[in-house]
C-alpha cells in the first residue's frame, strides 16, 4: 500500500500504466529468501517428525485420493481467507475509485492502512487462537463476516467517504486476521500426517486459484449484473458461509479421530 501511494505521487498515470505497476511486484519478490529461512526454522509436530519413510509420488497421490474429502473441506475453509484478503487489498483501490468516486490517493491510503492492520492483527489473533483454540475464532470470525459484510458495504455505498471506506475495511481486516490467524494452523492440524504438506498446499492453491484470485473480477461482474455497488459483500458472505461450514465439518471429523485414538490407547 505504501509503495502504491509513493508511486502514485512520483509517477504520471502514463508511467504507472507502462512500467510503474511492476515495481511493487518486483519489491515483493525480495521477501522470498526470507520465507525459505523462516520455513526451515519452524518446528514440526512430533507425529510428523516421527515419520522416517519418505513416500513416493504414487503413494502421495494415493493418500490424496483417500483423503480427498479432507482436502476439499480444507479448500472450503481457505476460501474465506483468500476471498477476504483479495477483497480488502487487491480490490480496494478499484472499489474506492470506481464505486465510491474517491481519489486514487485516498484508495491507496486505505490499502496501506489495511496492510498495516493485517500486519498487527495476524500474529495477535494467531497467538489468541493458541490460548482459546482454533475453532472459536474460526466460527466467530466467519459468522461475523457472514452477518456484517453486506450491511457494511451497503451503508458505505450510500454514504461514500474516505473515513467510511477506512472504517469498513479495517473491520473486514480484523475479521480476516482473526480467521486467518487461526486457519493456517488449524488446516495443518486437521490434515492427516500422510498428506499434511501436500494436502495443505493443494487446499490453499485450489482456493486461491478458483476463488481468491478471481475476487476482483467477480466483484465487478456482480456489481454490473445486479446493479448493486454493495454486491461484493454478497461474495464475501458466501465465502464466510463456506468457511463456517468447513470448520464445523473438519473439527467434527477431528474430534472423532481423537476419540478413536484415545479409545485405542485405553
How would you summarize the topology of this molecule?
Elements: H1 2-10, H2 13-20, H3 22-29, H4 32-41, H5 46-49, H6 57-66, H7 68-88, H8 92-99, H9 104-132, H10 134-158, H11 162-190, H12 196-212, H13 215-226, H14 232-265
Helix pairs in contact: 1-9, 7-11, 7-12, 7-14, 8-9, 9-10, 9-11, 10-11, 10-14
Keywords summarizing the entry:
symporter activity; Sugar_transporter_CS; Growth Hormone, Chain: A; 0% strand; 14 helices; globular; 266 residues; mainly alpha; disordered C terminus; symport
Instruction: Report the CATH C-level class.
Output: Mainly Alpha
**Domains counted in the coordinates: how many?**
1
Major sheet attributes: none
Strand content: under 5%
CATH architecture: Up-down Bundle
* H-E order: HHHHHHHHHHHHHH
Q: CATH H level: which superfamily?
A: MFS general substrate transporter like domains
Give the overall shape, derived from the CA principal axes: globular
Mean pLDDT: 85
The total of beta strands comes to: 0
The CATH topology turns out to be: Growth Hormone, Chain: A
Count, helices = 14
Estimate the helix proportion, in percent.
over 70%
- Unreliable runs: 258-266
- What's the end-to-end separation, in Å? 55 Å
Amino acid at each position: 500500500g505504501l509503495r502504491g501511494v509513493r508511486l502514485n505521487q512520483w509517477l504520471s498515470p502514463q508511467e504507472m500504466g507502462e512500467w510503474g505497476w511492476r515495481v511493487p511486484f518486483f519489491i515483493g519478490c525480495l521477501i522470498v529468501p526470507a520465507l525459505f529461512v523462516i520455513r526451515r526454522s519452524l518446528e514440526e509436530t512430533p507425529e510428523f517428525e516421527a515419520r522416517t519413510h519418505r513416500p513416493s509420488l504414487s503413494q502421495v497421490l494415493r493418500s490424496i485420493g483417500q483423503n480427498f474429502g479432507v482436502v476439499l473441506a480444507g479448500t472450503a475453509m481457505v476460501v474465506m481467507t483468500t476471498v477476504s484478503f483479495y477483497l480488502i487489498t487487491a480490490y480496494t483501490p478499484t472499489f474506492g475509485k470506481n464505486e465510491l468516486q474517491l481519489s486514487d490517493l485516498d484508495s491507496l491510503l486505505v490499502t496501506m492502512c489495511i496492510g498495516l492492520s493485517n500486519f498487527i492483527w495476524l500474529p495477535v489473533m494467531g497467538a489468541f487462537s493458541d490460548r482459546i483454540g482454533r475453532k472459536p475464532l474460526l466460527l466467530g470470525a466467519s459468522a461475523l463476516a457472514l452477518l456484517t459484510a453486506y450491511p457494511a458495504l451497503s451503508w458505505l455505498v450510500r454514504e461514500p467517504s474516505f473515513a467510511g471506506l477506512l472504517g469498513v475495511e479495517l473491520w473486514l481486516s480484523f475479521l480476516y486476521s482473526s480467521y486467518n490467524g487461526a486457519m493456517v494452523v488449524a488446516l495443518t492440524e486437521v490434515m492427516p500426517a500422510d498428506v499434511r504438506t501436500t494436502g495443505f498446499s493443494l487446499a490453499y492453491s485450489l482456493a486461491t486459484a478458483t476463488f481468491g484470485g478471481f475476487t476482483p473480477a467477480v466483484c465487478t461482474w456482480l456489481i454490473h449484473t445486479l446493479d448493486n455497488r454493495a454486491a461484493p459483500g454478497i461474495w464475501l458472505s458466501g465465502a464466510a458461509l463456506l468457511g463456517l461450514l468447513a470448520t464445523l465439518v473438519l473439527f467434527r471429523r477431528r474430534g472423532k479421530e481423537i476419540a478413536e485414538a484415545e479409545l485405542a490407547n485405553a
